[in-house]
TrEMBL record:
Protein name per UniProt: Zinc-binding dehydrogenase
Location of the Enoyl reductase (ER) domain: 13-342
Family: Belongs to the zinc-containing alcohol dehydrogenase family.
Keywords associated with the record: Metal-binding, Oxidoreductase, Zinc
Organism, scientific name: Stenotrophomonas terrae
InterPro entries per record: ADH-like_C, ADH-like_N, ADH_Zn_CS, CAD-like, ER, GroES-like_sf, NAD(P)-bd_dom_sf
Regions that span the bilayer: none
Cofactor(s) named in the record: Zn(2+)
Pfam family, one: ADH_N
Domain of life: Bacteria
GO MF annotation terms: alcohol dehydrogenase (NADP+) activity; zinc ion binding
Length: 349
């Protein structure tokens, strides 16, 4: 079927309206009418070829929510009308150790929701800035939030799981001091989730103007990271720091704040490397510098259920598809509180 989408024909071209093709649902497929799609900084990195290997046309979008339109003959878990989501994964090998453990995000054969290898035309996956998507039932998530919150649920599918997963893996909870660096789409969810898990949360931002907002999101303290004196006061008190910054920066400034055995987890994925940290900042306190990528399907469902139970959604600004190029420029300036979400009904305009 042919559907409307928004994408780019080259790295230096703006996104524009285009027609794309979706496959007819197979026996295990779910076809989804996309209601909303969040705008992740990864979309911008990919569509502008800041990461290697972007294929064009590129239709980004991996924070997808909507309603089931149709299901294949062997699908029993979903029916038309169900509220569902699709995150960053639309396929994987389904037979490796990672897939067996529900960690499809670490499968070597993981297929991303856009720019991933597929037999569908045009040969790579096309994402959620589109009217419909067809995905194998294994990668479809169930949404338990009220339907009125659907737009604000969309960012949970990437920003939510990408911060939830390291917070869980490194045991954020009562008695733990957790830092969140960079208060953008990911970071604002990191604050909300770490707070809901019961941790003491410190937000690190380069923007003094985000201080009050970070406290309102659930941070117990806010530190402006450009203020050297304020940073020095934070020394050696963190169990965990989740770093979401989308640009290369001095990691030592944050590593020095970890307790013995503390860990800083990088989730931000800048186009060029960070300057190498000082090894002495790591060996002297047995500190860990780690990375984490989104989350597997079972943990993504767990995160959605946790958010529904704790009444957590993203803080969003709803836009039309034609506003996407401006939204990217504003995201680069940090001018978004805290996630743009496309109203996919605007694609037909
Ligand atoms: P975003 O909304 O643009 O937020 C990034 C935040 O980082 C900004 O709001 C800003 O916060 C801070 N920042 C940006 N440039 C900075 C600089 N030069 N120096 C210091 N701080 C800076 O982006 P996002 O959607 O949250 O994504 C963040 C990063 O995570 C991107 O690189 C994205 O590709 C990556 N990502 C990774 C995964 C994964 O699985 N690991 C998943 C999704 C996204 P302040 O104003 O508070 O300083
Ligand atoms: Zn993302």
């Amino acid at each position: 079927m042919s559907v409307k989408a928004y994408g780019a024909h080259a790295a230096d071209k703006p996104l524009e309206s285009m027609d794309i093709t979706r496959r007819t649902p197979g026996a295990h497929d779910v076809q989804i009418d996309i209601a909303y799609c969040g705008v992740c900084h990864s979309d911008l990195h990919q569509v502008r070829a800041e990461w290697a290997g972007t294929q064009y046309p590129c239709v980004p979008g991996h924070e997808i929510v909507g309603k089931v339109a149709a299901v294949g003959a062997h699908v029993s878990g979903f029916k038309p009308g169900d509220l569902v989501g699709i995150g960053c994964i639309v396929d994987s090998c389904k037979q490796c150790e990672d897939c067996d453990e529900g960690l499809e995000n670490y499968c070597d054969g993981m297929v991303g929701t856009y720019n991933g290898a597929t037999e569908d035309a045009p040969g790579w996956t096309l994402g959620g800035y589109s009217q419909e998507i067809v995905v194998h039932e294994r990668y479809v998530l169930r949404i338990g939030h009220p339907e009125q919150q659907l737009a604000a649920v969309a960012p949970l599918l990437c920003a939510g799981i990408t911060t939830y997963s390291p917070l869980r893996h490194w045991n954020a909870g009562p008695g733990k001091t957790v830092g969140v660096v960079g208060i953008g789409g990911l970071g604002h969810m990191g604050i909300k989730l770490a707070h809901a898990m019961g941790a003491h949360v410190v937000a690190f931002t380069t923007s003094e103007s985000k201080r009050e907002a970070a406290l309102a999101l659930g941070a117990d303290e806010v530190v402006v990271s450009r203020d050297a004196a304020a940073m020095a006061e934070q020394g050696k008190r963190f169990d965990l720091i989740v770093n979401t910054v989308a640009a290369p920066h001095d990691l030592d400034a944050f590593l020095a704040l970890l307790k013995r055995d503390g860990a800083m987890v990088l989730v931000g994925a800048p186009a060029t490397p960070h300057p190498s940290p000082n090894v002495f900042n790591m060996i002297t306190k047995r500190r860990t510098l780690a990375g984490s990528m989104i989350g597997g399907i079972p943990e993504t469902q767990e995160m959605l259920d946790f958010c529904a139970k704790h009444h957590l959604v993203a803080d969003i600004e709803l836009i039309t598809a034609s506003e996407i190029n401006d939204a990217y420029e504003r995201m680069l300036k940090g001018d978004v509180k805290y996630r743009f979400v496309i109203d996919n009904a605007s694609l037909s305009a």
